[in-house]
Design brief:
There is one protein chain. By secondary structure, the chain is of the alpha+beta class. It is 39% helix and 12% strand. Helix 1 runs antiparallel to helix 6 and helix 2 runs antiparallel to helix 4.
Length: 262
């Protein structure tokens, strides 16, 4: 078996673990996602005028109805019920060069699709205001651009503020675990909610009040922590398998170079 084949096997195994996270999450929450039929008949539906939401676009009303009908072992609450603020929009400052010791300026482009903070191409801001300083477990949501992208702030050793296309919420830790919320906001159900709620425009967006209405199944905090810990282990194992695959290929390349160079 070649090193390339071994690397691909490790990556496939890692992807299977990642793909299984949603299944694990929904099983623990008692959520059964019915298949969405996309044939013509399923795209035709009637809605009573009194049942219309505040928007008239068909996709919004159909998908929102789908989400509202989902059952869980636990009560559905909204984000607004578990946060301590109304949602704070970030600073509208221009970015400046970053030097070690500076306050970092976190923008949407600094957060990858998995909610991880990138460590390359850091920027600071032209002006720093204390009101935008991030604290441990603050939650940031992208309101436009990569709309809906979620980031939980963990690294308090590096002071940081956040940019204007992000919205900060401060969690009530007695009601919701930050990591549980983060993993829920990486699920296909959350992504369906984002695609349903975002307002189509030149640049799609979701505002602070709309984020506060986001539905979340809420187990007791100890159950949230158990779910978050298990998903964290799954993600760590997938990351380890990918790293193993990279090491296998690098080792094979070194052996080839040694053979060629004698």
């Amino acid at each position: 078996m070649t090193a390339i084949t071994k690397k691909k096997q490790k990556e496939l195994e890692a992807q299977r673990i990642i793909d299984g996270i949603d299944s694990y999450l929904f099983k623990e929450l008692g959520i059964n996602l019915p298949l969405i039929n996309s044939d013509l008949n399923s795209r035709l539906f009637l809605v009573n005028r009194r049942d219309l939401m505040d928007r008239l676009d068909p996709r919004f009303n159909k998908d929102f109805s789908y989400i509202k009908k989902l059952q869980s072992y636990y009560p559905w609450i909204t984000l607004g019920e578990v946060v301590l603020n109304n949602g704070q929009y970030g600073a509208n400052e221009s970015a400046s060069d970053y030097n070690i010791g500076d306050v970092r300026y976190i923008r949407i482009t600094d957060i990858d699709e998995h909610g991880n903070l990138k460590q390359e191409e850091k920027k600071s801001a032209s002006h720093i205001e204390d009101s935008y300083m991030l604290k441990y477990n603050d939650v940031l949501f992208a309101r436009s651009g990569s709309v809906g992208r979620c980031y939980i702030h963990k690294n308090t050793t590096e002071p940081a503020i956040f940019a204007g296309y992000l919205i900060r919420y401060v969690l009530n830790k007695n009601k919701i675990d930050a990591d549980y919320l983060f993993y829920y906001c990486n699920s296909i159900l959350y992504n369906l909610w984002v695609s349903t709620i975002q307002r189509p425009a030149v640049q799609a967006n979701i505002n602070a009040q709309e984020f506060r209405k986001m539905p979340i199944p809420l187990p007791p905090v100890d159950k949230q922590q158990e779910i978050a810990a298990n998903i964290s282990e799954m993600r760590a194992l997938a990351k380890h398998l990918k790293a193993e695959g990279t090491m296998i290929l690098q080792k094979a390349k070194l052996e080839v170079e040694r053979t060629i160079l004698g």
